[in-house]
């Protein structure tokens, strides 16, 4: 977010210069990189659709998560997902799904969720590691830029007023009420906390857990992976954090849609966000 | 936007999302099959290898584990029983007639029997085997240090890679023998051994008898099983598919440290 250096009056309020060019570029780079990382990651997961806790996969304990099939001869096959000993039938999506041609396929995640769509581990790894570098370089650039430009200090670190408004902000979110007018120029406290958790929690953690799976990087400081329980635990955490990021994106996109999809989309493309001049509880772009 | 009804807008958004999804999947498929794009993607491997080498020392040691960490059973992956008559004849005789041939760019080509390999300086280590598929298993390995074997045959200065030719054909017709290659940094690494024992017993056939490579900082497919011949080369471009290994020829990364 920027100061209102380019405020311009408009028919239904004024345009406020919200996102700087570097932030906009880095935002959309993240959209591309995270989408490809998720889908190529699911293809890699499909090569061995089981997750474990510990240093190795074969400790005598069953997997904490397993996607597979059950059934006998004939047509009674089912895709099943077992989580901590609980079994769910997930035919059609997990374990057993169909290609667009209708051909059944025994696989963890279905074709439409993976890159490449067919089982192809080596190429999924190429996609994954290339975009892992894109994400990492983009993330480092973002942190450097946001520190230097004081984007963090000015826009993301909650101040005392934010903490006091925490309860009110939770109530507002639950009623889908969003700030308008001057208040819409600032991120609300829940928004700030969500962004900070993603930027300084989930993203560094998923990168670190990816590195923890590298046998070569294990040798940088032998035993460091035991801090999280071992390599297979790291793989499990990597998977869980990926879905936490998906959950963040779903909430993020939901909030964007209910608080003015086109206004937010424009502000992340051109930088300009429309502030409605009349104080009302209407949605800005309804 | 305001002249649209909410229904029209919802339909538009649904179609846009479906179109974007279809474009994404179809676009990625086209790119996956294009040569130039897979070359672009391989920059990721180059970057990973460069950074992995930059942040570790030449002899950075893979983690070693305790007896209690060992997996109850050590999984066999890939070939479990080589479809090769000459190999099977050696196996019948408990590999008494096995000779490991070491040649290529060396001053003194040699052949080693299992007894001679056992007489070389050895190392015992409990390490984790990480498969490219995602699973890990821990076992205890004992084997001849590859560095000691190489010192015996004296690599020529132009030698850059060590190639391992294996006894297991990868097709049912008995063609496409497994092979792998590593650089001299890995070859002279203290934990790089030609293992002849697993978990205090002679290496089982399912796990690569009579010897398999252990190159502990890399993924499982680098750990060639059923090694028959070791060749020192300046380049592996002329061997099989030219990418330095059976799986590398099929798109897998030569640097398997990640």
What does this protein structure show overall?
- The complex is a heterodimer of chains A (286) and B (258).
- Among the domains of chain A are: 8-20 and 149-275, Fumarate Reductase Cytochrome B subunit; 50-108, no CATH class.
- Chain A is of the alpha+beta class and 286 residues long.
- In chain A, β5 (78-83) and β6 (86-89) form a beta hairpin.
- Chain A has helices at 21-46, 121-148, 151-156, 160-164, 166-174, 189-212, 215-218, 231-258, 261-269; strands at 8-10, 13-17, 50-51, 65-70, 78-83, 86-89, 95-98, 104-107, 272-275.
- In chain A, 49% of the residues lie in helices and 13% in strands.
- The two termini of chain A are 23 Å apart.
- Chain B has 258 residues and is of the alpha+beta class.
- Chain B folds into 2 domains: 1-41; 55-250, Alpha-Beta Complex (Sulfite Oxidase, Chain A, domain 2), CATH 3.90.420.
- Chain B has 7 helices and 10 strands.
- Chain B has helices at residues 6-32, 35-41, 43-54, 85-92, 114-119, 146-153, 184-187, and strands at residues 99-104, 110-113, 122-130, 136-145, 161-169, 177-183, 193-198, 201-202, 212-214, 227-233.
- The interface between A and B is large, with 48 and 52 residues.
Kindly give the count of domains of chain B.
2
Series of H and E elements of chain A: EEHEEEEEEHHHHHHHHE
Helix content of chain B: 25-40%
User: Which word captures the global form of chain B?
Assistant: elongated
How would you state the average pLDDT of chain B, rounded? 94
**Helical stretch count of chain B?**
7
| Unreliable stretches covering 5 or more consecutive residues of chain B | none
C-alpha Rg of chain A, in Å? 22 Å
Indicate the structural class of chain A: alpha+beta
- Mean pLDDT over all positions of chain A: 91
Report the structural category of chain B.
Answer: alpha+beta
Radius of gyration of chain B: 23 Å
Second-tier CATH architecture of the largest domain in chain B: Alpha-Beta Complex
Strand order of the biggest β-sheet of chain A: 3-4-5-6
Looking at the structure, what is the overall shape of chain A?
globular
Mind summarizing the main beta sheet of chain B? 5 strands, mixed
Q: Report the end-to-end length of chain A measured between terminal Cα atoms.
A: 23 Å
- Give the C-level CATH assignment of the domain at 8-20 and 149-275 in chain A: Mainly Alpha
Strand content of chain B: 15-25%
Question: What is the end-to-end distance of chain B?
Answer: 49 Å
């Amino acid at each position: 977010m920027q100061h209102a250096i380019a405020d311009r009056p408009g028919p239904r309020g004024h345009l406020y210069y919200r996102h700087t060019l570097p932030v906009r570029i880095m935002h959309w780079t993240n959209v591309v990189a995270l989408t490809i990382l998720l889908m190529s990651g699911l293809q890699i997961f499909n090569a061995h659709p089981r997750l474990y806790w510990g240093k190795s996969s074969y400790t005598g304990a069953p997997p904490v998560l397993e996607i597979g099939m059950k059934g006998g001869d004939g047509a009674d096959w089912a895709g099943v997902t077992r989580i901590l000993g609980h079994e769910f039938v997930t035919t059609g999506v997990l374990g057993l799904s169909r290609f667009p041609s209708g051909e059944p396929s025994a696989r963890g995640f279905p074709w439409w969720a993976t890159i490449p769509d067919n089982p192809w581990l080596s190429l999924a790894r190429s996609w994954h590691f290339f975009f892992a570098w894109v994400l990492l370089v983009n993330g480092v650039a973002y942190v450097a830029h946001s520190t230097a430009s004081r984007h963090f200090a000015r826009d993301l670190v909650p101040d005392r007023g934010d903490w006091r408004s925490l309860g009110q902000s939770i109530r507002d979110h639950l009623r889908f009420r969003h700030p308008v007018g001057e208040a819409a120029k600032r991120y609300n406290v829940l928004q700030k906390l969500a962004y900070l958790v993603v930027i300084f929690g989930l993203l560094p953690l998923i990168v670190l857990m990816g590195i923890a799976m590298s046998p070569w990087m294990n040798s940088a400081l032998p035993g460091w992976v035991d801090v999280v329980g071992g390599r297979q635990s790291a793989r499990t955490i990597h998977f869980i954090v990926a879905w936490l990021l998906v959950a963040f994106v779903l909430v993020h996109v939901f909030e964007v849609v209910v608080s003015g999809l086109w206004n937010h989309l424009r502000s992340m493309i051109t930088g300009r966000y429309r502030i409605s001049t009349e104080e009302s509880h209407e949605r800005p772009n309804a | 936007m305001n002249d649209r009804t909410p229904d029209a807008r919802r339909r538009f958004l649904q179609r846009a999302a479906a179109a974007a999804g279809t474009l994404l999947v179809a676009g990625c498929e086209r790119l996956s099959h294009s040569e130039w794009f897979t070359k672009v993607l391989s920059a990721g491997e180059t970057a990973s290898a460069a950074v992995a080498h930059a942040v570790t020392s030449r002899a950075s040691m893979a983690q070693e584990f305790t007896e209690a960490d060992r997996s109850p059973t050590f999984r066999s992956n890939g070939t479990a029983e080589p479809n090769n008559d000459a190999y099977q004849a050696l196996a019948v005789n408990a590999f008494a007639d096995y000779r490991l041939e070491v040649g290529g760019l060396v001053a003194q080509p040699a052949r080693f029997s299992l007894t001679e390999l056992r007489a070389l300086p050895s190392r015992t280590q409990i390490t984790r085997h990480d498969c490219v598929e995602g699973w890990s298993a821990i076992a205890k390995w004992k084997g001849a240090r590859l560095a000691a074997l190489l010192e015996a045959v004296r690599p020529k200065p132009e030698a850059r890679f060590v190639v391992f030719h294996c006894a297991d054909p990868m097709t049912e017709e008995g063609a496409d023998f497994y092979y792998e290659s590593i650089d001299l940094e890995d070859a002279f690494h203290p934990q790089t051994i030609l293992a002849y024992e697993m978990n205090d017993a002679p290496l089982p056939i399912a796990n690569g008898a009579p010897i398999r490579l252990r190159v502990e900082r890399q993924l499982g497919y680098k750990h060639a099983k059923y090694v028959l011949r070791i060749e020192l080369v300046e380049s592996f471009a002329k061997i099989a598919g030219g990418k330095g290994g059976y799986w590398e020829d099929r798109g897998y990364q030569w640097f398997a440290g990640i």
